[in-house]
């Protein structure tokens, strides 16, 4: 394909790149999605699968709600199932300070129209008898959901291909340069591709592309360790999260419990490694046992993590480049990108095809890193 042209080139075949390709190709633009490995091989394919609406950064709610509507419509839009399940999300507080945080999350969620149920200890035990005794309060959002990350991204890319998008796996973009009003890409193997607009959705590798155009962000590659247990009779339907962040878990109908333990662990995008130190498995299982004592002695059958880009304010970069017209960034999803991915793809497609999007994206501008970055408490707690 030496010397080919396309309207839009997308670097990175994760969920964000795939949804962007889907919406743009559906609108009739010529799109080429370039993935150095296979579609959904990185964060997008190895994540926990949580589509949580409670407890998000307030500026992210419009985007997040737009994304959830797309998840809810996944089977119709994409034509395949991704095990989307609206099983709800339960947040647990174990002391008065955590209860205050829980209430703040609940009120913020309600201000964006979410229905939040509140529980005291007695109601909690009645509704979810497998919970331990120690939680003093909980909130439940029935609209929160989960999906299978292994299924979702490849399905979206296949749907994009049906609309005419060219999906190129095992195709690394090795260089990007300005070419007139557009861009010239060099692909591994020496091929070249010209495009009018360029999407940088390269995940933890996105900085290299931004820096070619004089932009930067203090990106930190890491991942939350994930664990899966042997199967048990299916009992636990919602996703459950201790609000102190020590553990989040869900049971899948096949019976296995999937859990994630915090803090996250640094990962290496150069060697492509996301290690899980053995101590993290023990810590996560102890945190799980505190929430569901009957799981105290269950066996973990597999551990893994992934390589995700974090930023110190725990807010992603989404939107146009400040230095190169026609270039759009979408990276640094700080552990939230699976839920908002469809919304990000939709907004990018609107910005590229229409010149603007109805969803407010100002908080996500890369320009915020021209001055010293704000460091969120969450980031400090996990990575300092
Ligand atoms: C273990 C784990 C658990 C998580 N759990 C959740 C969760 O429960 N809920 C949630 O909302 N989020 C979760 N996340 C975060 C979520 O997975 C990510 O935010 C999201 O998948 C990011 O999608 P992406 O498309 O931006 O990036 P990625 O999926 O990383 O895709 C980027 C792609 O770009 C490709 N690429 C990079 N450079 C190049 C190049 N030069 N040329 C060609 N291709 C290139 C890479 O190979 C990669 O496939 C989790 C993340 C991890 C790691």
Describe this structure in words.
There is one protein chain. With 384 residues, this protein is α+β, with helices and mostly antiparallel strands. It folds into two domains: 4-66 and 149-219 and 311-383, FAD/NAD(P)-binding domain (3-Layer(bba) Sandwich); 103-142 and 225-304, D-Amino Acid Oxidase, subunit A, domain 2 (D-Amino Acid Oxidase, Chain A, domain 2), CATH 3.30.9. The protein is built from eleven helices and 21 strands. Strands 1, 2, 8, 9, 10, 11, 20 and 21 form an eight-stranded mixed beta sheet that branches. The protein has an eight-stranded mixed beta sheet with strand order 5-6-4-14-15-16-13-18, sandwiched between helices. Helix 1 (15-26) packs parallel to helix 7 and helix 3 crosses helix 10. The longest helix is centred in the C-terminal third of the chain and has 18 residues, at 337-354. Flavin-adenine dinucleotide binds at residues 11-17, 34-37, 41-44, 46-50, 172-173, 201-203, 205, 223-224, 226, 305-306, 308, 331, 333, 335-339, 341.
Topology diagram in text:
Layout: E1 4-11, H1 15-26, E2 31-34, H2 43-46, E3 50-51, H3 61-72, H4 74-78, E4 89-93, H5 96-111, E5 116-119, H6 121-127, E6 137-141, E7 145-146, H7 149-162, E8 166-168, E9 173-179, E10 182-187, E11 192-200, H8 206-212, E12 220-223, E13 226-231, E14 239-242, E15 247-251, E16 256-261, E17 265-266, H9 278-291, E18 300-304, E19 308-310, E20 317-320, E21 327-331, H10 337-354, H11 377-383
Parallel strand pairs: 1-2, 1-11, 2-8, 4-14, 11-21
Antiparallel strand pairs: 3-7, 4-6, 5-6, 9-10, 10-11, 12-17, 12-19, 13-16, 13-18, 14-15, 15-16, 20-21
Bound molecules: flavin-adenine dinucleotide.
